[in-house]
From TrEMBL:
The keyword Lyase does not apply. Pfam families: FAD_binding_5. The keyword Cytoplasm does not apply. Residues 1-165 form the FAD-binding PCMH-type domain. Keywords: FAD, Flavoprotein, Oxidoreductase. One of its GO terms (molecular function) is oxidoreductase activity. It comes from Maritimibacter harenae. This is Carbon monoxide dehydrogenase.
């Protein structure tokens, strides 16, 4: 580790002010950022902790929309149960330490290509709320570790419309428990959404072909015969691009079956 300043604001206004200083970076649960700092892959001079800001915590069910404060931990989401598929997802992130320290806002803002929450947000058609605006999930995730957030803009909450049916299934890498491939399926009055994480070099994405098939027949059989090209899939020591492309179909069928 290296020397840096740590500030602990207790209000969102104070946090925004602190982040306006040169080379300041927000710190939420720290489950991704701290290892990054240890490896010197990022070296901000000031960290602005968001963990003491009560207005960024908590879960509210507002007329069929679940609003979750950005500093709410994975463990809290897992316990809530208002959106069963989301609570199930949160309960299988990492290990107990990660679930009790990591936050939904940090995960969404980091947009790791193998993280679970981006698939939930995109699959649910969630809205990401920041200190400046509201951004639909379809516009928020823009690429590998990239989002629509501007400099100094932070996630304050995520709003999930609760669908008729939903489920998340991941084929996890056993050491990290990240998704080698993860699929979030949600059936709403407006149609079916299928979001895939862990597979693509471009990060989380919607599988539109599967969505169209499932709109007409919400059953695992509807995905039979559908394939994804391996061109843009991740290839590493855990699996080839072809293997991941195949897994997307397998895991999508399992997610649809789980959603019922």
């Amino acid at each position: 580790m290296y020397a840096f300043e740590l500030t602990r604001p207790t209000s969102l206004a104070d946090a925004i002010k602190a982040l306006g200083e040169e080379d300041a970076q927000p710190l939420s649960g720290g489950q991704t950022l701290i290892p990054t700092l240890k490896q010197r892959l990022a070296m901000p001079s000031t960290l602005v902790s968001l963990s003491g800001i009560e207005e960024l915590k908590g879960i509210k069910n507002e007329g069929g929309t679940l609003s979750i404060g950005a500093a709410t931990t994975h463990a809290a989401v897992a316990r809530d149960g208002s959106y069963p598929a989301l609570s199930d997802l949160a309960g299988h992130i990492g290990d107990p330490h990660v679930r009790n320290r990591g936050t939904i806002g940090g995960s969404i803002a980091n947009n790791d290509p193998s993280a679970c929450y981006p698939a939930a947000a995109l699959g649910s058609g969630a809205t990401i709320v920041t200190n400046n605006r509201e951004i639909g999930a379809d516009d928020f995730f823009t690429g590998l570790f990239e989002t629509a957030l501007d400099e100094g803009e932070i996630v304050t909450a995520v709003k999930f419309p609760i669908p008729e049916k939903a489920a998340y299934v991941k084929f996890e890498q056993p050491a990290s428990r990240f998704a080698l491939v993860g699929v979030f399926v949600a059936k709403t009055a407006d149609g079916v959404r299928v979001a895939v994480t862990g597979a693509s070099e471009g990060g989380v994405f919607r599988w539109s072909e599967a969505e169209k098939a499932l709109d007409g027949n919400f059953s695992p059989d509807a995905v039979d015969g559908l394939t994804l090209p391996a061109d843009d899939m991740i290839g590493d020591l855990h699996g080839s691009p072809e293997y991941r492309a195949h897994l997307v179909g397998v895991i999508t069928k399992r997610a649809v079956a789980k959603a019922g």
